[in-house]
Specification:
The protein is of the alpha/beta class. The chain has four helices and five strands, in the order αβααβββαβ. 16% of the residues are buried. Keywords: Cell projection, Cilium, Flagellum.
Length: 137
Amino acid sequence: MTDGVQNRPLQPLRPRPEGTPPVSRPGTAPVRQGAAAPGRFQELFTQALDEQRWGLKFSAHARSRIQSRNLELTPERLERLRQAVDRAARKGARESLILVDDLALLVSVAHRTVITVLDGKQARENVFTNIDSAVIT
């Protein structure tokens, strides 16, 4: 019975010629060379710790909105947001509008992910669709 493996002597490995990009296997991400952008590791590390602490993720869009609109998410607000997401989850909500003080947050309750954030003025000028619940905290 043949298992498809041939017995032949191993060939020594030859170094890759200078300037040749590394080869990646099909279905894998290409190999990246070089250092990450300065501060990027710290940013990712801090984000991971925050996700563990609050049990919530923030989409790139939500993070961008918070930063561009100079919105403040204090630890007290984050705790209230976490509790609101927990309450919405217990009621079976999937997509929720959560109001925390003067902030309106659209949250994927099932994924515990903040999708976007608006301040009070912007929230009053909007129509929110595709939500199945609202939590005021």
